[in-house]
Amino acid sequence: MDLHLSFGPLAALIAGILILVMPRLLNYIVALYLIVIGIVGIFG
């Protein structure tokens, strides 16, 4: 069985689990996500 995972859904799953465990991480995760999306958009 061959399993292919793309980064987006995997990152969303990990972020969701971390937010459930430690809700304070939400601010940092959202900020990092926006920064990464911005960098990819500029240099992508």
UniProtKB/TrEMBL annotation:
Q: Which InterPro entries match?
A: DUF3096
Q: Where are the transmembrane segments?
A: 12-43
Q: What keywords are annotated for this sequence in UniProt?
A: Membrane, Transmembrane, Transmembrane helix
Q: Which Pfam families match?
A: DUF3096
Q: Which organism is it from?
A: Herbaspirillum lusitanum
Protein's recorded name: DUF3096 domain-containing protein
Lineage top rank: taxon: Bacteria
